[in-house]
């Protein structure tokens, strides 16, 4: 795949002396003041404008993922802001680097399971059961299910799923998730909640966000949350307190690891 | 400022077994499905809900800053995605690290000038002229004015300012910017456009975003733009082409620098 | 694994009013001026001082991985430096984010194969052949072998392996790599060079660097290379040239992807 | 500065099918196994090989800056490693983003003062006194002096300065630093230690590292330190403990900030 063989193209944006175009629309005349951020994000990403239901669902997902208190990402952001207050973007970037497998990997894993179920030639119900059994047999957690704190049920999930159903999206991914949820409870012999990442995987599937870029949606939402924590760090700094507490509470030892 | 003396607190979020609270509101009952991303971002950042005008203005700013083609940030993101496709968040973070002084510093610089003008005991008009003269005398560019491509006028600025005026915000920052613009043209002896960063500085000031965290607004908007470019890189990869072109067009020499 | 149950400890460093200790040694009296960077890095990482052979091998690896011209990592670093010259650390960080699966993943993958071969109950020779056959059957590239440019042989590999053999390290990992190399050529029916990542995987195994942290060795070496490119960007800037070339050579189209 | 006008060049590296060249030297024949990491880093950065004294000093600086316990950078790295263990490079990058103004800015600030003193037409002694008086009058801390923990003296500084003097470098920067130190004590009316960043600024100046890229030296050294903490996090994880402790000890309040 040398550059001799193929010239890549961009379909996103270009500009002239007096105009900027995004996905073929004039930024000034057709987008600023006419689209919300959420509509613009969908449009820039997928090249088509979202309908009202898609916008409502994407907003719900973005609102859900923005904030969850003093998480590892937030702590990283506050540490870097404290060391380098002149570069707010670096503090945000540091926190975003934590949007990795531990939390968001489960969203992607769940999205892949839903796609597997929807594409199964033997039928969705049969594949959903097989997916649950396969994970159970391998003693692996099933992505999108269970939560360490929110028990027995993650309160975000019914809200997100209900909202999508009200909005009247096609419903395929939600159907697959509900099939899987029933099988999970039966196969595991106890109730495992659909967690927020499971519900989000279904909702993003419903509005046509490809699994390969779902993590990016979480990154955008979380970036806003991190900016809020930087603001709080400006007003009521906690970084030095966390630093001193860590030095004090994680003792040095010279015994072998 | 030792930890003994002061316990920092957080006012942003906490959670219980069955609920998550953000700024005192129940995430599931009061925020998901009720706030747009833009409203939620404002609420999480400032601790109060935006009114319709504030939301409209913040949306306009976020839409404006999202996308400007194959910029250095975008090139960095595409390079890192190519090297490390398993970590979308790292590719976004790499691009965000470019939201620094060259572009966004001018927004912050302009915001500081507007605050200086609004707070001047001798009156706004007098201080605006003095600001223009001071920069001219020092042969320094005046932040928020001029554009290398969009001449004679940056098309985004009248749109953004007009939209804010229609929305009926207080108008102080816009008034200061317009005063300054008239003086800049007179003092420099030629027309310098209010550029997008200048207009954005005024709009964010109007809706109460502190100057110290304005850069964060750009970071959030740009993060969405970078996700769109990662998606395009998945569909029509350009990174290797840019890499090979760079190796070919930036020749090696052993002559002294 | 709650904090109630287990208090983590650190074995790396502590300080008093008048001294800093690293791995039990007094930084000022026992380390500064007595250890090279490479010895200190090994000592801080593994908690024991390297012998002369280990130091020689680690130096060789670090020298090998530092620089390979205008790579994607370097381009990312130069782009971010151009946008944000006030934060050299952010430009380095942006480039380091590219030390991911595409290049360095093959080092880790090769290291895992070598460990598999060395631990095989049925004998190393038998497992080496099985590893080659397994990858061939799955039509997967075998990590640590082959190179797109350096054909038929990567010149770095014999140098690195020869140097380690001269240094007199145990030689287990090198033996496993040579076994595998012979089987690869036979099973694939053509010569595939041991590439630099393959040789590095064997050398780092020889000196006791755990596979889980091998990527970190590449990160350190590459960080130095990126600093050199930032210095060149200060003296003879290329970022704007690459940016303009990219805008010019990657055309906009409105045809569907 | 359009690309039409000027073609940038690189003087660092190029490769052919069977060789890689760095700064004109054949990597395999002339560098691997012949240079230490420290020598290679100097050579790649400045385009000339260091002599023994320069190598000794650069090693001493790199050893000094590598490790200082559970600092904010280390905490950020451990947080990101915990969230995203598949991307060691992202965890290192997150920590490096903290190599900013708070700590390293003082090194650069001190280096600029030393250059100012050395270049003063009125003589070094006169300018050194003026620098001390200027900072005192402005009630600003003087970069490179004072330390919150290491009192009355930072133990690293006499060791670093002594080692450089033994090595027989020209000594100009050290002379300027000692002049300044005497004036600081006199002008401030109490003893302020030359701290490690002050001593490092003088040593890097002595070996010809330009002030504009000094921060990069700290970045390289610190990257090694962060890799050691990732290894410890693999063996004895502390990130979750720090996270839970932070949630517990930084309480939520709904009172106004």
Structural key phrases:
257 residues; Cytochrome p450-Terp, domain 2; mainly alpha; three-stranded antiparallel β-sheet; homotetramer; 60% helix; 2 domains
In a nutshell, what does this entry contain?
The structure is a homotetramer of 257-residue chains. With 257 residues, the first copy, chain A, is mainly α.
Please give a structural write-up:
The structure is a homotetramer of 257-residue chains. By secondary structure, chain A is mainly α. The first copy, chain A, has two domains: 1-35, no CATH class; 48-250, Cytochrome p450-Terp, domain 2, CATH 1.10.230. Chain A is built from twelve helices and three strands, in the order βββαααααααααααα. Chain A has helices at residues 27-31, 37-46, 52-65, 72-83, 88-96, 104-119, 124-137, 156-167, 172-188, 196-206, 214-235, 239-249; strands at residues 13-15, 20-22, 25-26. Chain A has a three-stranded antiparallel sheet. In chain A, β2 and β3 (25-26) form a beta hairpin. In chain A, α3 packs antiparallel against α8 (156-167), α4 crosses α12 (239-249) and α6 (104-119) crosses α10. The termini of chain A are far apart. The mean pLDDT of chain A is 95. Chains in contact: A-B, A-C, A-D, B-C, B-D, C-D. Chains A and B meet through β1, α1, α2, α3 and α5 of A and β1, α1, α2, α3 and α5 of B.
Instruction: Compute the average pLDDT of chain A.
Output: 95
- E-strand count of chain A: 3
| Low-pLDDT segments, ≥5 res of chain A | none
- The CATH homology group name of the largest domain in chain A: Cytochrome P450-Terp, domain 2
Strand arrangement, major sheet of chain A: 1-2-3
Distance between the termini of chain A: 48 Å
Named at the architecture level, the CATH assignment of the largest domain in chain A is Orthogonal Bundle
CATH topology term of the largest domain in chain A: Cytochrome p450-Terp, domain 2
Strand percentage of chain A: under 5%
What series of H and E elements makes up the topology of chain A?
EEEHHHHHHHHHHHH
Largest sheet of chain A: 3 strands, antiparallel
Interface with most residues? A-B, 93 and 94 residues
Number of domains of chain A: 2
